[in-house]
Amino acid sequence: MKKYEKMNAYNNIQNIRKSLKRLKKLSHSCLNVGYTVLGRELKHLYNNIEKECAEIKDNVHK
Description:
The protein is mainly α. It is built from two helices and no strands.
């Protein structure tokens, strides 16, 4: 990967992580007000996206 491609990928991952933080807060809010099914689904979604980001980050650094 070229340097600018790595920087672009890194910036994209950072933006995804910011969105993930909002998703995690939404999940906690749903769980706190009793929307357990929605909260659990959001939590699973968060975990899956976090794993994908980690894999992408590992591939970018190779």
